[in-house]
Amino acid sequence: MTQHKHPFDSALEFRHENGRVFGQTSAAYANMIGPFGGMTAAAMLKAILDHPDVLGEPITLTVNFAAGVKDGEFELEAKPERTNRSTQHWYVRMVQEGEVVTTATAVFSTRRETWGATDMSSPHLPAEAAPVSTEMMPRWAQNYTFRMEGEMRDKIKDAQPNAETLQSIQDKPPRPLDFPSLTAMADVFPPRIMIRRAQFAPMGTVAFTVYFHVDSATLSQHGDGELIGHARANRYYNRYFDQSAELWTPDGVLFATSTQIVYFKE
Amino acid sequence: MTQHKHPFDSALEFRHENGRVFGQTSAAYANMIGPFGGMTAAAMLKAILDHPDVLGEPITLTVNFAAGVKDGEFELEAKPERTNRSTQHWYVRMVQEGEVVTTATAVFSTRRETWGATDMSSPHLPAEAAPVSTEMMPRWAQNYTFRMEGEMRDKIKDAQPNAETLQSIQDKPPRPLDFPSLTAMADVFPPRIMIRRAQFAPMGTVAFTVYFHVDSATLSQHGDGELIGHARANRYYNRYFDQSAELWTPDGVLFATSTQIVYFKE
Asked: How confident is the model at residue A198 (pLDDT cuts 50, 70, 90)?
């Protein structure tokens, strides 16, 4: 019996060689040009998770998309810049042909049970939300199931007064949620300017930040079920706009908040 | 006639020595322990702004507070990791006694006039908002004027169902707004957990991100007038919580959005 590897795991298979770490872009997660940014972000995080000196679990990751990642091999250089008793600060560089194409900083920490609360209201995805066709979307989107209600699907065909959307997100085929996949899911939301203006222009994320509000034990309990993603934009100004998003469990537990700032050409 | 330097400018006076850059923490911007994080963030940004190779204007800055900054001298190492035609990606380290205490990444870019819009609704600070006493606040807060309406001032005395606040922010004495001061202002909001629970516990920001939605010409036009700051928390979970904030002009122009993730001990 052959156990097929999930394409997400295949995309994050690294080769370790004399303390150096090499990865390969994955055709299954190709974007219109180069790889899906969420997968690049997941690779930056995995370089830390795989590092022998890692301490604790991810609290935050910021990825800077410094240049287009070319299809093919890349090297990942992860360096713990500072290790404290319970927190660790990382700097990661993705290098291709001797040039830096992506950088990232991350904070890891041990978790401890404390008082907790959620100030943000959880969104409600109506039961009639149905899978969206990903046929017209880039290759990477074929590895996800997105459900949206009909009104929302119609909304994104025309220019809108704002770019807020609500949808489900799940790996296709389903795959147990972990920190790399949660990171990638925080980047599945189409650039808000496409929804706002219902027209295409060259664009690309320049920086992306995720805050993790979950530990690995809770991710394991969640398993491979879908998450609910809520996204919106704040301001579009002279070549850049920012968007923010949250990832919730269907029963209203906030797993991650994220922001990104995106270049656009008019 | 003596022209007194603004304490904010004195705090950001760097010494350049054989291509190395040194700064000094400022007693005027002291926090309970060490310097005000907003001033540390401003110093990280200014290290880039002062760099001979800088291209364009700040689009985003992420600061990682890796360890407590000690009062006294620090060195700033700013490195352009990647320079493209119109964007530049930076990595900055603040070092004290040979150890990294703060890291930052930033994206700079040339701006060009494009289509623009603001999806987020601008908040309204009622006219009766009056200056808040900063007497009980840390030393750095004495360099700001904060106005809040009475209901909001009362609200923060007791535990709350959420940590949302609205206030004005202005340098005291007034000082023309620039990118470093805008950065510091994005970090003046008290940790949301203090408002939510109305009790004090050891806490500290571990990472802070600012998105700039303004260029230097617009900042100059704004001058030294106040900004309106709107802040809230999202989730408090096992030692960390995140908060987000926006800085608006009084007439509703969004200058900056920011997020931070904060450690707390219960």
From this structure: confident
Q: Are B256 and B211 in contact (CB under 8 A)?
A: yes
Q: CATH fold of A7-111+127-264, please?
A: Porin (2.40.160)
Q: Are A55 and A108 in contact (CB under 8 A)?
A: yes
Which whole-number Å values give the CA distances from B167 to B81, B103, B200, B229, B256, in the listed order? 37, 29, 21, 5, 15
Residue B156 has pLDDT above 80, yes or no: no
ipTM, 2 dp: 0.97
Tell me how close the Cα of A30 comes to any Cα of chain B, in angstroms: 23
Closest CA relative to residue A90, chosen from A110, A60, A68: A60
Hey, is B148 helix, strand or coil? strand
Structure token digits, residue B238: 């096992």
The full set of domain ranges for chain A reads 7-111+127-264
In angstroms, what separates the C-alpha of A240 from chain B's closest C-alpha?
A: 8
Query: Which residues are within 8 A (CB) of A166 and not within 5 positions of it... i.e. 6 or more apart?
Result: A123, A125, A148, A149, A152, A228, A229, A230
For chain B, the average pLDDT equals: 95
- The model's pLDDT over B237-259, given as tens digits with 9 standing for 90+, comes to 999 999 999 999 999 999 999 99
Handedness of CA B209, B213, B215, B219 (dihedral sign): negative
Calculate what percentage of chain B has a pLDDT beyond 90.
90
Q: Indicate the residue of A105, A119, A215 with minimum beta-carbon distance to B62.
A: A105
- Indicate yes or no: CB of B81 within 8 angstroms of CB of A100: yes
Which residues of chain B have a CB within 8 Å of the CB of A263? Answer: 87, 109
Partners of A109 on chain B (C-beta within 8 Å) are: 206, 239-240, 263
DSSP assignment letter at A11: H
Mean pLDDT of B192-208: 92
Beta bridge partners of B130: B148
What number of other Cβ atoms are within 10 A of residue A144's Cβ? 21
- Distance (Å) from the C-alpha of residue A211 to the closest C-alpha of chain B? 7
Q: Name the closest residue on chain B to residue A260, using Cα atoms.
A: B211
Please report the number of interchain residue pairs, chain A to chain B, with beta-carbon separation below 8 angstroms. Answer: 210
Residues of B in contact with A195 (CB under 8 A): none
- CB A109 to CB B246 under 8 A? no
Answer whether residue B57 shows pLDDT above 70. yes
Residues of B whose CB is below 8 A from A99: 82
Report d(CA B213, CA B39) in Å as an integer: 20
pLDDT in the model for residue B261? 98
How many angstroms separate the CA atoms of A215 and A211, rounded?
Answer: 12
Residues of B in contact with A214 (CB under 8 A): 237
Nearest to B82 among A67, A240, A257 (CB): A67
∠ CA A186-A261-A59, nearest 5°, is: 45
